[in-house]
Design goal:
The protein is an alpha+beta fold. It has 3 domains: 201 residues, no CATH class; 340 residues, no CATH class; 157 residues, no CATH class. It contains 26 helices and 24 strands. Strands 1, 2, 3, 4, 5, 6, 7, 8, 9, 10, 11, 12 and 13 form a 13-stranded antiparallel β-sheet that branches.
């Protein structure tokens, strides 16, 4: 590098404002400010708000100024939405938290830079040189540059207006990603909200109203925004002072794959060369000075839901008590008018949306240690109404003199209690345990299917009993998990011994832990890792759910609707009843090509022989196959004629929506449920990864292989369309099976061995008389040209 080049670079670094750079789109023009002015002079006449970051609102010019902390101060910055859009598909919910970073503020010439240090890579070495070497090996991120307005010694006052009047939450991107319009921030319709600002010794809150505009808006925006071309959302920025780790009194706790907690991880290149470079700890709250963890229930939830949420939250009071930590968890109603975004409060919020959607438990976590600073639960308000719909369909409880049924209400509220406990569990640090349903409903951290008993009614007929639909309280797994995360220990040595004992207690109690990676998606292999299943015997439970479904369908009529509702709404009630078996079907299908294993350590005390991966026995796989294939029988997929006669088209003011079967016409399509049911089964059974496992397992003598699965499926579905209703259903199933095989053959993601066997199967059935001439012809055209045929 020449001396002239060095001089130019030095000048650019020393005087960055002298470098020419294009202004960012939509930003304010640069202001000329006399930084020699004192803070008192620069803020004279402004509304001030003292606290962690002192604020000054220049309301006449629409500006906000703030004092930044010392460069050594760690600050947690996060962005949230005090009010939402109301669309589940877009996801901009009330209370939603997005970007969260540990930041520091450092002066650079006429600016103060907000810098996010790189916490993914950090050193625990006692050597300052080693720590510096790691820090300098990985890049930090400068998130914003604030113009300095005034200073008093070390105190720096900066202009935060542009920082707060920007799309820090990614609102425009979220809307675009959902295909709902190309919205841009309109600064002329956006403003700071001084009355919503809050300042405390440990945190500062600043809010802005941001307006996004577009010439075109999608259906979700039309359904939720007051004017679709203009969306105005409140965005809040929170700054939280973090004490030095050495002074916080918090000791991170080791993560173990069996413990049931979320891991918080970072890489430490300075760790001993014979130890892992990645360090993992659990996320959890700190128990300090005997103070309990307190959760507040949003009073936006109406009664009786509000009380149910409070009761569900209090499940954890009992769990902490059973874990030997009585009094260390408490739930209460949020005081009226309290701020949902206050970092000092753990909150359970009630979120209304235009359509049914997920509830979730989120947390604000100290990224240095994994300590949870704030739990924030968002519960979808339409969930309880879906539960009411579900139980109305199962029980058909109404009729003359029965305009209300407490069984429906009680079961729906029991589900809400469980939901509140589940999502709070996430904000305590707990991950899903999808094996818990196979151990007597051992955890609220599973997704629970309603447990429905078959009982004898007063007239001798079998009736459905939902009085025990959901467990009342946390389960034994939850208590063990709380012991692992929250039991206090005096020394690290005592902690290591105590945690090992807790894991041994879980093993001895037969409690397994299988989470999202084991359960999500139809291709997963473990028979116990399932969502929304019920019972310790997946195959026996599927037979039971088949019976529940049959009884409910036989009884389904206008008695499933409260008096006064249009008969058309029976169609919406039909959907969850017709598909009642769907989740238990997936649980049973896991045995086909299934593999059992356990997450464990390698030390002798925690390494049982059954931890090693083992194929599900062939007899069990074949039994599962036969049970799954029952769901493709025409009689299973056909609706009773008495029910079909009760399904009118939509009346004025009503329409079909995403909760309906895909319509084939204005009138109810009697084959729409059959198509949905057939596709459900065939997508589960003929999953690409499952088929690959069947090819591998089929090499062993006596094992269930792909050829046998295909042959048994063909035996089940092949049959001529004789013009009857069931014949039409059989034709639909055949069509869906052929479509599925063709799609797998076309897909490059499908194992070549699987594609080869399915190709051979199509060739074998291309001249079968049980298929219609149209089906045979489309198979021939596909075999001649897979990319063009099969239309």
């Amino acid at each position: 590098m020449t001396s002239r080049t060095q001089l130019a670079l030095f000048a650019a670094l020393l005087f960055p404002c002298a470098c020419n750079a294009p202004a960012s789109r939509g930003s304010s023009p640069p202001r000329t400010t006399d930084t020699s002015a004192s803070i008192e002079e620069a803020t004279r006449g402004m509304r001030s708000l003292d606290g962690f970051l002192p604020l000054y609102f220049d309301e006449e010019n629409g500006r906000v100024l703030l004092e930044v902390p010392a460069p050594s101060q760690d600050v947690l910055h996060y962005v949230s939405l005090p009010a939402g859009l109301g669309s589940n598909d877009i996801g901009l919910d009330r209370g939603q938290i997005s970007e969260r970073r540990l930041v520091r503020f450092r002066r650079a010439g006429p600016r103060v830079l907000m810098i996010a240090p790189n916490l993914k890579w950090r050193s625990s070495s006692e050597s300052a040189e080693v720590r510096r070497g790691v820090e300098e090996s990985f890049a930090p991120s400068v998130l914003f540059g604030f113009e300095i307005v005034a200073r008093d010694g070390e105190r720096l006052l900066v202009d935060g207006t542009d920082f707060f009047l920007r799309d820090a939450h990614g609102i425009a991107r979220k809307i675009a990603d959902a295909g709902q319009g190309d919205f841009t921030l309109d600064r002329s319709r956006s403003a700071l909200e001084p009355e919503s600002a809050r300042n405390f010794p440990g945190n500062t809150e600043v809010e802005a109203l941001l307006t996004f505009t577009s010439d075109w808006a999608g259906s979700e925006v039309h359904a939720t925004a007051a004017v679709p071309g203009s969306i105005s959302l409140r965005v809040r920025h929170s700054f939280v002072a973090l004490a030095p780790l050495a002074e916080s009194g918090y000791r991170p706790r080791a993560f173990d794959p069996r413990c049931g907690y979320f891991p918080h991880a970072w890489s430490d290149p300075s760790s001993p060369i014979d130890r892992p470079i990645v360090r993992r700890v659990i996320t959890r709250h700190a128990l300090r000075n005997g103070e309990p963890i307190v959760y507040f229930i949003d009073q936006a939830a109406p009664e009786p839901v509000r009380t149910a949420l409070l009761e569900g939250a209090r499940y954890w009071e009992r769990a902490f008590e059973e874990a030997g930590l009585g009094g260390m968890f408490r739930a209460a109603l949020l005081p009226p008018g309290a701020d949902l975004s206050d970092v000092s409060r753990n909150i359970v919020t009630w979120v209304s949306r235009s359509t049914r959607g997920w509830s979730y438990g989120d947390s604000i976590v100290d990224p240095r240690s994994g300590e949870i600073l704030k739990g924030h639960v968002s519960l979808g308000a339409l969930r309880v109404r879906q539960d009411v719909l579900l139980f109305e369909g199962l029980l058909a409880p109404y009729g003359p003199g029965r305009e209300r049924d407490e069984r429906v209400r009680a079961a729906a509220l029991a589900r809400i209690r469980q939901l509140a406990a589940h999502e709070i569990g996430h904000t305590l640090g707990l991950a899903h345990n999808f094996a818990a349903s196979t151990s007597g409903r051992a955890s609220v951290m599973d997704y629970p299917a309603p447990h429905i008993d078959l009982v004898a009614g007063p007239d001798g007929e079998v009736e459905l009993d939902v009085s025990d639909a959901y467990r009342d309280g946390c389960g034994p797994w939850d208590v063990l998990a709380i012991r692992y995360g929250y039991t206090p220990y005096e020394t690290p040595e005592e902690e290591a011994e105590g945690l090992a004992r807790i894991l041994a207690d879980a093993r001895d109690a037969g409690l397994e832990f299988l989470s999202d990676a084991d359960a999500r998606g139809s291709a997963r292999a473990h028979p116990k890792a399932n969502l929304w299943d019920d019972g310790d015997d997946a195959l026996g439970s599927l037979e039971h759910e088949y019976d529940v479904r049959r009884i409910a369908l036989e009884r389904l009529d206008e008695r499933a609707l409260e008096p006064g509702r249009p008969l058309f709404e029976l169609e919406r009630t039909l959907v969850p009843v017709f598909l009642h078996h769907r989740y238990q079907l997936e649980a049973a299908a896991r045995s086909i090509g299934g593999v059992r294993y356990r997450h464990t350590g390698t030390d002798p005390t925690s390494f049982p022989q059954d931890a090693l991966p083992s194929t599900v026995p062939a007899a069990e796989q074949r039994k599962a196959l036969e049970l799954v294939l029952r769901s493709l029988r025409p009689e299973f997929l056909s609706l009773p004629q008495s029910l079909l006669d009760r399904l009118p088209p939509p009346p004025p003011g009503y329409r079909r929506d995403r909760e309906s079967f895909e319509p084939g016409s204005f009138l109810f399509d009697p084959l729409a449920p059959a198509r949905a049911g057939a596709e459900l089964t065939l997508e589960l059974l003929f999953d690409a990864e499952r088929l690959s496992r069947l090819v591998d397992q089929g090499r062993v003598e006596g094992a269930l292989g792909l050829d046998e699965v295909c042959e048994r499926t063909l035996e089940q579905v092949l049959g001529a369309d004789d013009g009857s209703a069931e014949g039409s259903v059989a034709f639909e199933v055949q069509t869906r099976l052929i479509d599925r095989w063709m799609a797998l053959i076309r897909s490059e993601r499908t194992d070549a061995r699987v594609r080869s066997q399915l190709w051979r199967m199509l060739g074998r059935i291309s001249n079968r008389s049980e298929l219609s001439a149209w089906q045979r012809d489309r198979i021939e055209r596909f075999l001649d040209n897979p990319e063009e045929g099969a239309g």
